[in-house]
Amino acid sequence: MTIVDTPERRQLRELTRAFVTREVLPHLADWERAGEVPRSLHETAAKIGLLGVGFPEKVGGSGGDLLDSIVVTEEIIRSGGSSGLVAALFTHGIALPHIVAACGGDKAGSHDAGPQHLIDRYVRPTLAGTMIGALAITEPDGGSDVAGIRTFARLDGDHYVVNGSKTYITSGLRADFVTTAVCTVLPGSGALSLLVIEKGTPGFTVGRRLEKLGWHCSDTAELSFVDVRVPVANRIGPEDTGFLAIMQQFATERLSLATQAYATAQRCVELATNWCRDRSTFGRPLASRQLVRHRLAEMHTRAEAARAYVHDVAERVAAGQPVVTEVAMAKNVAVAACDFVVDAALQLHGGFGYLRDAEVERHYRDARILGIGGGTTEIMNEIIAKGMGL
After folding, report:
1. Residue 336, CB-side half-sphere exposure with 13 Å CA sphere
2. Is residue 74 flagged as an active site residue?
3. What's the pLDDT tens digit per position in 28-50?
4. pTM, full prediction
């Protein structure tokens, strides 16, 4: 038994697997074609307590911590879901933490350190599944350069006037509100703040649906802000503290992506192993051939090694240790394992693996974003090099 494998978390795995089997698998192919998951899925997940895992009960969550969230993410994919489904259903995992932290809701027993109305207006309804939130950081002319954000918020009395644009925004089409990174001094100055901007606010428009290689059931959009008036009361935390807030939440986002990567690898090992046992060529099962067995063994080894390292780093993050370098390493290790495994799994499936009817085909497409989102592999290497003193 490990910290991640306790009786309570085994029950959480069983709950998650039952949810995926009953509520997801019969419909996932249709959601892939539709380009989004239904809003009702959020409410269903909330009613059984899955949507609020990792968020304190005092803000409307189900309790638990980062490790519980990892268990849910892992089991969704291991049960036949996908990283695209995780992105669509759990977008609040990146939209809400800044609000919860700024209001003191992430500290057990703490009193409110910020405007409680943000918790009541946005956090509670989202964790109840009746609202959807998104996080808007990336801009058309800049990806990983968070400090270079140019969307500008000018203070005008008790409102900010926001102008700018965002792109690649997960759940941007369905979101009722967007936690938005803006510059509050000069565009590109790095003096950032976070504002909650509601859909329907004059001047805030959602652009076209972005068609993607993978994550087909997760809607992605462009956002535009033209003289959008946002109440100062919708600012998350003190002015010009947004950059630090964003950086502090990156560890959780990156570990979530790392979890999606190794879980996808584990699922593809399972799919490929079953296929090679059942598939016969030239009168013998594929698994009877040493070359195939050794390939499966290598796939299994890489997936399990990635899982073990991500769990180790996640436990250290949950304990409050400063492991920025290790988080970057965990993400890269898991993504590399996933890249190798999904490619090998599809190859072992042969022509069937290239068809949309094959689950492994979806994982192959979905996996490609994991080395890009939350900080690219190259940015992770920069962080690792800095940690080495280079």
Report:
1. 16
2. no
3. 999 999 999 999 999 999 999 99
4. 0.93
